[in-house]
Amino acid sequence: MGFEEMWAALLPVGRDPVTGGYHRFAWTPPELECRAWFLSEARRRDLDVEHDANGNMFAWWLPDGGSRDAFPAEGAVVTGSHLDSVPGGGAFDGPLGVVSAFAAVDRLRERGARPRRPIGIAVFAEEEGARFGVACLGSRLLTGAIDPARARALTDGDGHTFAEVLHNAGLDPGAIGPDEDLLGRIGCFVELHVEQGRALREPVGVASSIIPHGRWRFDFGGEGDHAGTTRLADRRDPMLPFAGMVIAAREAAERNGTVATVGKVRVVPGGVNAIASSVTAWLDARGPDDAAVRRTVKEVDEAARVAARPHRVSVDLAEESYTEIVDFNAALRDRIAGTLGGPPVLPTGAGHDAGVLAARVPAAMLFVRNPTGVSHSPAEFAEPADCLAGVEALTAVLDDLACG
Ligand code: HGY
Ligand code: MN
Ligand code: MN
Ligand code: MN
Predict the structure, then answer these.
(1) What is the mean pLDDT of residues 232-245?
(2) Which residues are involved in binding Zn(2+) 2 (predicted)?
(3) Which pLDDT score is estimated for 404?
(4) What is the number of the ligand 1 atom nearest to the C-alpha of 129?
(5) What is residue 349's predicted lDDT score, i.e. its pLDDT?
(6) What are the boundaries of each domain within the chain?
(7) Pocket test for ligand 1, best of 215, 357, 376, 380 (most atoms within 8 A of CB)
(8) 363 and which of 26, 278, 358, 372 could share a cystine (Cβ 3.0–4.6 Å)?
(9) pLDDT tens-digit series, residues 305-358
(10) Domain 213-323 in the same topology as domain 3-211+325-403
(11) CB within 8 Å of 313: residues ≥ 6 apart
């Protein structure tokens, strides 16, 4: 099953027939179908599949006679990415890295390569945080970057907790958390991902860094009431400070040279003729350095409180997740760049599991050109020739790191 066939098999899963956007939220039917696809491709290649306690999956190509319990001291070379999506996401963000990983293993085998160290293909759970709100939830749990008790209590839009969903998926919510044995078996992690910007002009590039980025939740508490019979003076309408917060986010970003986005809001009760009782809004803020991002969030918070005061609305701010700047492992990055003959090296404003793993193991990223530069949208795209160039690059990198 080559790259094209695997891609064709995944393409329709979770795709909205009208918008073309993807809805593959962690442990919902479309994402479970993607997981089943992953397991079938791993079995097809006789890869040894390991599920960690956090919902992540690893398919191991073990050296001849190797076993999962006897990895070499230098550890495995792991590649892969994620299969979940943002609401209305694109086809490439995540799956391109997983399909390319299987295709690269196939190419190595066709060429008679024999790994001297295990090669792993990873799928990390809930990378987008679209269901439970925290980005890279699976890789954060694996690396100890989030408190397991907090993770268990995370809820989705229907009030289901992460613990419930894990239990229903056959996992033990009590077992989630850092897995030092598994981390100790990962020698390095190289994630291939579609470029989510307009900077890459060649088919394949290498990541230098991920800029600081995070997401914060604002809760505005007001008083629900009738839209027609409630005098303006009697209202405590949380929509008003929410509106102020959205404008303030853009203005703070312009002042601080960052980017800030409010893309998700939940209004309760959400009736046309009902004044909201509460509004929850999420701020995504990113920027060149931690201080600029922190200033942006602080200014948005201050503006929200100023806007709330005259309406006697409460404002609560919670940090959902934050990743400081990730400078990828220079030695690994330079070795990969050398293998690929000096490709462009560029930063990214998008978060990735590789950025979370980088805190614990040498990590690197390959980018595949996206001519539209658009991502988290059905317009996200990569030319088939560039996708195959990505597979070729990943093949060369795995060959050098695991077989050479
Ligand atoms: O949000 C991000 O930056 C990534 O696409 N998860
Ligand atoms: Mn994404
Ligand atoms: Mn991604
Ligand atoms: Mn009525």
Answers:
(1) 98
(2) 93, 128, 376
(3) 78
(4) 6
(5) 95
(6) 3-211+325-403, 213-323
(7) 376
(8) 358
(9) 999 999 999 999 999 999 999 999 999 999 999 999 999 999 999 999 999 999
(10) no
(11) 220, 221, 222, 236, 237, 238, 240, 241
Distance 372 CA to ligand 1 centre (A): 17
In a 3-state reduction of DSSP, which class is residue 370?
coil
Cβ(357) to ligand 1 under 6 A? no
pLDDT above 90 as % of the chain: 98
Helices (H), 79-224: 95-110, 137-143, 148-153, 162-168, 180-184
| Class of residue 114 by CB neighbours under 10 A (exposed 0-12, middle 13-18, buried 19+) | exposed
CA distance 217 to 133: 9
274-275 and 225-226 strand pairing? antiparallel
Closest Cα to residue 139, out of 129, 127, 150?
127
CA dihedral 81, 86, 92, 98 (to 10 degrees): 20
Q: Which pLDDT tens digit goes with each residue over 36-89?
A: 999 999 999 999 999 999 999 999 999 987 888 889 999 999 999 999 999 999
Query: 213-323 has which fold?
Result: Alpha-Beta Plaits (3.30.70)
Residue 204: which H helix or E strand, with range? strand 204-210
Whole-Å CA distances, 151 to 79, 139, 148, 163 = 25, 12, 5, 8
Binding residues for allantoate: 215, 273, 286
Which residues participate in the annotated binding site for Zn(2+)? 82, 93, 128, 193, 376
ipTM associated with this complex: 0.89
Asked if 377 and 21 touch (Cβ cutoff 8 Å), the reply is: yes
**Across the chain, which distance is largest between two alpha carbons, in Å?**
78
Say how far apart CA 118 and CA 403 lie, in whole Å.
Answer: 9
DSSP for 23-75, written as a single string? ---TTSHHHHHHHHHHHHHHHHTT-EEEE-TTS-EEEEEPPTT--TT---TT-
Per-residue model confidence (pLDDT) at position 263: 97
Determine the atom of ligand 1 nearest the C-alpha atom of 349.
Answer: 3
Closest ligand, as measured to the CA of 135:
1
Atom of ligand 1 nearest to the CA of 375: 5
CA distance 176 to 55: 9
What does the mean pLDDT of the chain come to? 97
Query: What is the pTM (predicted TM-score) of this model?
Result: 0.96
